[in-house]
G-protein coupled receptors family 1 profile domain-containing protein (Cyprinus carpio carpio), 353 residues
Amino acid sequence: MPEELANCSVCCCTTTSKIFMVVFMISLILAILFGNLLTLAVVVGTKHFHTPQGYLKASLAVADLAVGIFVVPVSVYAEVSLMIYNSMPEWTARNSQSTPLHPCNFIGPVFAGCTLVSITTIFLLTIERSIAVLRPLHKESVITKKRTSILIVFSWMGSFFLAISPLVFSDEIALEYNPCSRMCNYALGSAEFPSQAWNILLLFPAFDFTLLGGTIVINIISLTTIRQHSKRRKHLAETESQSSTKPTFSDIKAAKTIGTLTLAFTASFTPIAVFVVGNVLGNEWCNFAFFAFWILTSNSCCNVIIYGVRDQKFRSRAYQLLISAQLNTAPKKTEYENTVNGGKENEEVVKQT
């Protein structure tokens, strides 16, 4: 029995499960591409969304799009090779230390970097909404497009620096195609278990949960403020001067949307953090690794669903774009066809008269 079959996760040990896994991966690619391209089309093509919040949503969509373009297709290629030839590509049997042009040298940092970009972007979205809710009079002066653009650039640079830091600061860490997760993951380059090398990998869950924890706390504060404001509105009729110091209805809806994004991402990322900590403690958890990594990957197609459900303006604009695209792709009659049909109609009128 081939080595990759002996060490396979629950998803890929039988022919049926292999086929199901490939279909799932391809469907996920299509969902990621469709959802995030639609998000970019709405944000870039609609003046209403040319705001700091829109910039951040576009950044989040680009990060998710990169996962669908680069990360998942590599897994599809490896799994299709396994399904057709009953053996994995040669590079999957070696790590990046023994193969300089290993595909995981690129795919691993891209996946880790895009995940970190998603976390930092959700954190920035939460900060932006909290200012709009807690300090509505200062929103326009504090949150500007220029400052948001600078923060987006720094979030991408910082995230990808952190993604490659295990490879830069440790010679014992490599990248490999993991037979359990069916993805490119960080791993030890040798068979030993040096605690110092694994401690470097703990940077990921430590950084991620620090940001996620702060994001959750800020969301709780914002949602508590919104709830208190809603109670006041039930008991008091607001004057114009009062309403100017309160968050607008759109700010409240946006804050709830970002809260939903935070909840969804936290739920999808938590299994990965548990898996990394478990690996540091010496646990392999093969089947758990598969579900953990692909739950996180599936989150890349969820944001457009959240926007569509929570944001009525986004939903309306996305619907308009889809309808216009459908009309543009519908077959149109050529001038010749119209002339011929018109001539036939004229002949029928003459015959009737």
